Amino acid sequence: MNRYLGTILLMALAGVNANAVPSELPALVVPDCLGVNIHFTGTEAEQVAKIADGGFKFIRMDYSWVHIEKQKGVYDFKPYDLLVESLASRGIRALFILDYGNPLYDNDMSPHTDEGRAAFVKFAAAGAQRYKGKGVLWEIWNEPNIFFWRPQPNVEDYVKLAKAVYPALKKVDPNCTVLAPALSGWDVAFLESAFGLGLLDAADAISLHPYGSSKPEDASVLYAKTRELVAKYGKGKTYPIVSGEWGYSSFNKGVSIETQADYVARQFLSNMMNNIPLSIWYDWRDDGPDPNENEHRFGTVAQDMADKPAYIAVKTLTSHLNGYAYANRMAVDSPDDYLLLFRKGQSTRLAAWTTAEPHSIKLPFDVEKVQVVSRSGQSSEAEIKDGLLDLKLTSSPQYIVPMGDSRRWGIDAAWNVDADARLTDGGLVLDVNSMFDGIDIGKARIDISGAGVTPASLDPASGKIETNYIHSGQDNPVVIVTLQLDGVKEPLVRRVVVSSSVCPRVNVMPSTDKEILFDIHRPSVGAKPVFSGKLVLANTEGVTLLDTSVPFTIPADKDRVTIRARTKEQPTQFTTACNLLDSKGHVIVRMPAGRYKIIETFADGKPG
Q1: Cα–Cα distance between 523 and 585 in angstroms, integer?
Q2: DSSP 393-459
Q3: Does domain 505-597 have CATH number 3.40.470.10?
Q4: What is the pLDDT of residues 506-539, one digit of tens each?
Q5: Using one digit for the tens of pLDDT, what is the confidence trace for 99-157?
Q6: Which sequence spans correspond to the domains of the chain?
Q7: Could you tell me if 121 and 160 are in contact, meaning their C-beta atoms sit under 8 angstroms apart?
Q8: Burial of 383 (0-12, 13-18, 19+ CB in 10 A)
Q9: Composition of the chain by helix, strand, coil, percent to 5
Q10: Which of 52, 101, 278, 364 has the greatest CB tally within 10 Å of its CB?
């Protein structure tokens, strides 16, 4: 993305005076957790007013070194002073990106010498000092894993810079919030390298730019992988994930303006579902007039500031869910259907859409009527018949407003459930915790089930239960938690994702010999320094196994080990299931039979 500032007249100005604003990340409340990228500084009263009217509470903008320090050691802040003041007048906070080179240092390349880093650190600290108490978030660079780190991406140099900047910011403003690395796309290799080099010691939150997601909901995979890496490298700490930049262009080869409108609303909603405390759309305004240019059509408004459907979609979302906090996702038959419940006090509302073809579903409900608000703000009424709401789902989010108090939705919104796997000497154990926030549910029963789960029941009064668990080997495994309320016909159901960071991982690898290769990955957390056990194969077809049980040991200094199961013939296409046992013989991973085929890659003709 081309996000360099144009020429700006810079002048010295005293700091902007205002009441102190909290500097932490916002809660998952609409619209506090929603923002938009901009490309301007100064007052820009008309643009700032329209941003506020749309419901955006954050902007993200380059805090450009080259435009602030034109003479060594001299900083001109006026355009940013004016911007911060203008934003504050409308209740909007800034996320400033500390970015890009300066011709005064390191030949205008990204800082990579002691002198360049020291100068950048002073520039960054001067900004943090100036806007202390203004609610500004600070992000260290923009997309250093691609061409924005010049002359080419260098994870070592980036982490060195981050480690120098972070303590300098904290020294002048201990309460400031620092984000990194503003990762472009799904470059998990760069992210893991950065974490391995200690980036988590130089950040309060992880910022991602999930470009490459074919639809907004797909980013959940990137968030899950990032959390796995945090569990691996975070030394027991947790880090919030921020979606700092991400959008879909409506240029001629991109998405339609109607799909763009669907996607901006769904991005914000699905990010809240994924516990992302801040989501910033790219971008605010179309950057140019050319409909054939990708960069010219990311905006929520046109270049002349006319509303695009995307702007109306955001305004509808923020007005009809204003003050509502994300509660949970309702469980329905299809994983392609998204029904997100929001709560404000005792009031509840629902956002609903599908990624599948349009279709209708029936929801158990306990009020007589609801108001249905479309993505573009049109409102209609629907009646509840025989205790069921007949709801048509499409790709466009709609908002369901009960016309009366719903006890069912109130309990569902107040019900908090989590499930965590734990590696013990007796195998894997699943801890299920259930709480109800400020509501009396009366007499009830909670049941736990799902793949690999030993079924169990939980007394709602106790709040927790422990049961045996065997991991399926799949990403984001799910446990089913069912709440049966006294006097309520249909139970409430929750599909809860189980953290798999304590579970080892098994991958089938290509082989050129009479053997099947398996990579065994140690758990990210919870495993003993030396992790050992055996892999037992079963239900194998298409190849004759000489080894059905293969022991393994992962040394303390390794993350994985490759083991070999010998075969009578060279495998080409086969089916096998496997159980992974720990050193005491407890099954901790049970992978169902999967079909595998050895193929030649197009790149080099080698098996893959």
Answers
A1: 17
A2: E-SS-EEEEESS--HHHHHHHHEEEEEEEEEETTEEEEEEEEEESS----SEEEEEE-TTB--EEE-
A3: no
A4: 989 887 789 999 999 888 776 678 889 999 999 9
A5: 999 999 999 999 999 999 999 999 999 999 999 999 999 999 999 999 999 999 999 99
A6: 325-409, 414-497, 505-597
A7: no
A8: exposed
A9: 20, 35, 45
A10: 278
Q: Which residue has the tokens 């205002």?
A: 18
* Tokens of residue 429, six digits: 């154990």
325-409 and 505-597 agree in CATH topology: yes
Confidence band for 600, pLDDT divided at 50, 70 and 90: low
* Neighbour-count burial of 169, counting CB atoms closer than 10 A to its CB (0-12 exposed, 13-18 middle, 19+ buried): buried
SS3 498: coil
Long-range CB contacts (< 8 A, 24+ apart) of 100-103?
100/4, 100/62, 100/64, 100/65, 100/66, 100/142, 100/148, 101/65, 101/66, 101/150, 102/65, 102/66, 102/69, 103/66
> What is the SS3 assignment for 551?
strand
Which CATH architecture fits 325-409?
Sandwich (2.60)
Q: Which two tokens stand for residue 414?
A: 């107040």
The radius of gyration computed from the CA coordinates of the chain, to the nearest angstrom, equals 26
Token representation of residue 216: 């907004």
Longest dimension (CA), the chain: 80
CA distance 454 to 284: 50
CATH topology of domain 414-497: Immunoglobulin-like (2.60.40)
